Inverse folding.
């Protein structure tokens, strides 16, 4: 899928670049053609009115191989692009053709036929496609007609001289843009690729987690169906097992729905002033019995009257996740330290939850808040976790503009630290 998306990105990018290059190429060709056409037209009309040009001081068209007249006069200097192949003839009333000026050779038969075609057309300017000539004509005061012929190859050569370099530059540019597009596609689609991989992994992990309780429920149901005459008391073991697995599935689905809604921004936060100290005490109370059963000691050190702005329900859920995680992975007969202090330097409430137990390997620390990620997968089911708790905690922290990170080492244990901005006074 990502490969198809990358190819589509490259194709669209190349199509846009090619369109721009073609538009520039067409504009350049049209501009060049118009410039050549204008040059040719100016030269033809200059030859058609030689006396006017002479009186106005404009330069005459030069002879081929000879410099133009008055070359030393800057205003009379003619650009090489204006040295076009022209033939000027005067046709008397009797039809006699006299070559007045020529900058190119022209066969007598061709010249005679071209003159007849011009006289027959009754147009003062036009094209003679059969001879590839342009012409302008003017009737003089003595009744004769002056005709200026120009070879249209001047125009086509101008385009041909531009065509090859333009094609070469265009092909090189397309190759360069293709290489750049390939690099850009990798950079631009890297977040998409990461999101796609995370989604694929999420679906795979969710399917795996749902498969286990469903398998247990189906097995228990099969056992119950094989003993239709037994009472619920006789089959209580399988009924309770089915209920437990159903509750696990509900918990997993609730967690998945929470993450899905937050990802889609469909779970708005209700910010209000919150006494975080009281909230922490209310969260600690249910874990006293849990800690007692596991032989764990809770050591809370809570500074009073620490107020923050936040969603009370979600912040309570975050704290419960951190406490539950600490109890699950604490070493037996160890102490879980919970502290909440006010940092005057950073204007933050700092909550830390520390437990002694198996340290989190350094290579796993960057992934600890990823969905369905567990350091020890073999212990996940016995501990009752799905690998979504810390991901939810991180999501809640991010939505509150708070920071949540973890430190873990063998001698010091594992500490989760939450930093929340204090409520503005």
């Amino acid at each position: 899928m990502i490969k198809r998306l990358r190819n589509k990105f490259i194709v669209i990018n190349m199509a846009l670049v090619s369109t721009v290059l073609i538009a520039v190429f067409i504009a350049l060709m049209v501009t060049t053609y118009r410039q050549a056409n204008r040059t040719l037209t100016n030269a033809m009309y200059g030859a058609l009115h030689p006396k006017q040009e002479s009186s106005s001081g404009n330069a005459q068209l030069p002879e081929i191989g000879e410099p133009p007249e008055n070359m030393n006069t800057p205003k009379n200097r003619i650009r090489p692009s204006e040295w076009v192949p022209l033939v000027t003839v005067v046709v008397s009333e009797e039809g006699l053709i006299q070559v007045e000026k020529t900058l190119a050779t022209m066969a007598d038969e061709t010249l005679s036929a071209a003159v007849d075609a011009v006289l027959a057309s009754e147009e003062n300017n036009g094209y003679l496609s059969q001879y590839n000539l342009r012409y302008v004509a003017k009737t003089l005061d003595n009744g004769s007609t002056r005709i200026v012929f120009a070879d249209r190859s001047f125009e086509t050569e101008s385009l041909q001289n531009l065509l090859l370099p333009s094609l070469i530059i265009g092909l090189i540019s397309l190759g360069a843009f293709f290489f750049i597009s390939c690099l850009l596609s990798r950079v631009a689609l890297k977040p998409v690729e990461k999101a796609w991989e995370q989604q694929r992994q999420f679906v795979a992990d969710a399917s795996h987690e749902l498969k286990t309780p469903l398998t247990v429920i189906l097995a228990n149901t099969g056992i119950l169906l094989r003993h239709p005459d037994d009472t619920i008391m006789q089959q209580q073991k399988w009924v309770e097992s089915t209920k437990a697995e159903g509750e696990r599935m509900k918990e997993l689905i609730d967690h998945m729905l929470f993450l899905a809604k937050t990802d889609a921004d469909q779970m708005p936060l209700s910010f209000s002033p919150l006494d975080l100290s009281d909230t922490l005490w209310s969260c600690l109370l249910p874990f006293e019995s849990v800690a007692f059963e596991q032989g764990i000691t809770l050591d809370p050190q809570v500074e009073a009257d620490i107020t923050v702005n936040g969603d009370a329900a979600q912040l309570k859920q975050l704290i419960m996740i951190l406490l539950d995680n600490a109890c699950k992975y604490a070493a037996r007969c160890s102490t879980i330290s919970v502290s909440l202090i006010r940092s005057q330097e950073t204007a933050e409430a700092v909550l830390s939850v520390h437990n002694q137990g198996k340290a989190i390997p350094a290579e796993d620390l960057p992934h600890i808040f990823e969905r369905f990620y567990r350091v020890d997968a073999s212990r996940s089911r016995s501990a009752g976790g799905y690998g979504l708790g810390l991901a939810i905690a991180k999501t809640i922290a991010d939505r509150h503009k708070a920071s949540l990170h973890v430190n873990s080492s063998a001698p010091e244990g594992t500490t989760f630290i939450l930093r929340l901005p204090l409520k503005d006074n």
